[in-house]
Write a structure and sequence with these properties.
Length: 216
């Protein structure tokens, strides 16, 4: 059942935690930072959360105006969850929390590496030249397809198929993370069957190299 627990503290930090401090709440927000998701997408992205728990968190976040439900236009016509304007204001907070959390030791194995986490890192690490021509990439991770669009020095990542594509990459989050931190090469990942490249491989390599050189 949704919770109505409160710290009973007038401090703004405590009041914020009354809204997003329950278990899984901020991870739901994280999953929606790159765009709307269906309930089934959220369940796949957060495999350790039960359906009932996820339903409760979504209801709570909706009641507090952080998340909303809406129906995508045809032909998809799917019901999705999306961040409200208020929920979108949590983005810099969530990203800053993630940066701080990188100093915390990893939990005991097995550890799940989330596709959204890797894509958020990729978005933050990419610094394409404003003079570079626009490009679109199709990235398939853990069975879900994402579009990366670079234009005028900006990067946009959203779920779904691109309407056109310069290059594509199908892999898993751990392999993409290794490509980004420099611990694996695209050549080795392809040779071992961990990555499949389509389209302009040189364009994809430029994308990965831009992210690697821009990563902290």
């Amino acid at each position: 059942m949704p919770t109505s627990r409160t710290y009973g503290d007038a401090c703004g930090i405590a009041r914020a935690l009354d809204v997003v401090g329950e278990r899984w709440a901020l991870l739901v927000v994280r999953e929606l930072l790159l765009g709307p998701q269906r309930f089934s997408d959220l369940r796949r992205a957060l495999p350790a959360v039960s359906s009932n728990m996820l339903t409760d968190r979504l209801r709570e976040l909706e009641s507090h105006g952080v998340v909303r439900q809406r129906r995508l236009p045809p032909p998809a016509a799917s019901m999705v969850y999306d961040l409200t304007d208020s929920g979108r204001e949590l983005e810099p907070i969530v990203l800053a929390l993630g940066g701080w959390g990188l100093r915390v030791p990893l939990p005991p194995a097995p550890v799940h590496l989330n596709a959204t986490s890797v894509l958020l890192f990729l978005r933050g690490a990419l610094h394409p030249s404003p003079q570079a021509p626009p490009a679109r990439y199709r990235i398939e991770l853990a069975g879900q397809i994402w579009t990366i669009h670079t234009r005028d020095g900006r990067v946009h990542i959203e779920p779904g198929e691109p309407d056109q594509v310069d290059a594509g990459l199908r892999t898993d989050p751990a392999t993409l993370n290794a490509l980004l931190d420099g611990s694996a090469s695209l050549t080795a990942a392809r040779a071992s069957g961990l990555a499949d490249v389509s389209g302009d491989e040189a364009a994809l390599r430029r994308l990965l190299e831009t992210a690697t050189s821009g990563a902290p």
